[in-house]
């Protein structure tokens, strides 16, 4: 291990919990991550000392709150290596970020017959907004298929992108753990004259992110999956694109002027931040970024690659053909999100039996129903590891799974 996950774990108060005398084994970070003491403290400290309105009032407290809020934006810019701070838009979550692009850029630029290319491994957040534009505008959706081991099948990518205006894809699958070749996909989109939208929800919390190296046009992600609070997400977009886009939501903060006969928009980023923003949540997100940077995103990725390798080999060694692990086995192209089928036991039953050992995994369709259909399953069980998980957690998963096997032996 390149760093000690057991030491990291100590920063997360909830992970010290025991339920019915047994320790908590949290393996659901792809769903939402736990929060370190540093984030909890930063948010309470801000609430106790500096909370106030932002962007609106001239007094000292309000200026202090505004500075703290804008410092969070700078931290996000550096975290993803965006060129300009005002290209960072705070939203409610990644879902809202994706909807912002579809509804603002999409409505301004897409009309009947225009093509948007997605992949078979997308989360509903990167499917449904485009379906809404199919209904509203008559656009066409095309889908990049998958290989048998759950990677993108890029054999016909040029043909799929031919004439497309948008290529929107995940950087890491929330079901299969697959890490996609983002730079290659951005280059392919641009070669075809399309913009490249990256759903970074599962990637950004676990890897070094560099939107300039990728050459992406938009990136969406949520704070709650990267040790920050829920209630705040990020959309980064190229200045030229954002500048040309109409506002998404209307109201306070996003205007330069309002008259009886209309309004004019504020400059970036306010244009896309209507209403009171998630102020305390931005402070928490900033603290989460500082926390992750303190450990190092490269270290985190290395640890998770080791965790994925360990967990996959442990499960395979213990259960052989009784377990099917979806997604790539090559650790180079996958994160530590591991979906599996266990014997004929329904994933919900698996999850309930694991819960008796306090092993928390998600069971369900993971908001990726088109992918589930491709896998021929209604649902999978999914164990997702993060920086605070250690090999002992993978062992606990395997032990609890053995209990499930005994319980459902037939
Ligand atoms: C790949 C991916 N995209 C988008 C989302 C949506 O994130 P949120 O619910 O925070 O908006 C998720 C959440 O699980 C996800 O895994």
Q: Hetero groups bound?
A: pyridoxal-5'-phosphate
Q: How many helices?
A: 14
End-to-end separation in angstroms reads 39 Å
How would you characterize the largest beta sheet? 7 strands, mixed
Share of β-strand residues: 15-25%
Silhouette: globular
Total beta-strand segments: 17
Spatial ordering of strands, largest sheet: 4-10-9-8-7-5-6
Average residue-wise pLDDT: 96
Describe the secondary structure blueprint for this structure:
Layout: H1 5-9, E1 18-19, E2 22-23, E3 25-26, H2 37-49, H3 60-80, E4 88-91, H4 94-109, E5 115-119, H5 128-137, E6 140-144, H6 157-161, E7 164-170, H7 182-191, E8 195-199, H8 211-214, E9 218-222, E10 233-237, H9 239-244, E11 255-259, E12 262-265, H10 279-295, H11 297-319, E13 323-325, E14 337-342, H12 347-355, E15 359-360, E16 362-364, H13 369-375, E17 380-384, H14 391-407
Pyridoxal-5'-phosphate is lined by residues 93-95, 123, 125, 170, 174, 199, 201-202, 222, 367.
Task: Give an overview in words.
The chain is of the alpha/beta class. The protein has 14 helices and 17 strands. The protein has helices spanning 5-9, 37-49, 60-80, 94-109, 128-137, 157-161, 182-191, 211-214, 239-244, 279-295, 297-319, 347-355, 369-375, 391-407; strands spanning 18-19, 22-23, 25-26, 88-91, 115-119, 140-144, 164-170, 195-199, 218-222, 233-237, 255-259, 262-265, 323-325, 337-342, 359-360, 362-364, 380-384. A seven-stranded mixed beta sheet has the order 4-10-9-8-7-5-6, with helices on both faces. A hairpin with a 2-residue loop joins strand 11 (255-259) and strand 12. The protein starts with a helix and ends with a helix. It binds pyridoxal-5'-phosphate. Pyridoxal-5'-phosphate is lined by residues 93-95, 123, 125, 170, 174, 199, 201-202, 222, 367. The site of pyridoxal-5'-phosphate (PLP) has 12 residues, from helix 4.
